[in-house]
Amino acid sequence: QAQLAESGGGLVQAGGSLRLSCAASGRSFSNNALGWFRQAPGKEREIVAAISWPGTKTYYSGSVKGRFTISRDNLKNTVDLQMNSLKPEDTAVYYCAASLYSFATTFPEYTMWGQGTQVTVSS
Fold it and tell me: What is the C-alpha separation between 84 and 69, in angstroms, rounded?
């Protein structure tokens, strides 16, 4: 059964860095865009970053552009999110997701989800 599993979340002080990883298993994600979303308490799930197949295009939300970097390793079937200069408003549960499309930047385009990993940024 295909699944996505996130790791790397935790507690960090404002200004610090974290690297999230997502391992895809059970199938190849060739031809699939991969993305990172986040959901803070009381808020809707929002896209943070997305990367196309095979990785030539990326998308970042305005709130993280210049601070976060998404990358994928197609041989290992993984997608990472490097988060620098973290702010308290980055606190959320972060989800890895896979799309049916080769590039996707909106929530409805993603159909497979991981369980999420908590990121907490203290001020």
Answer: 9
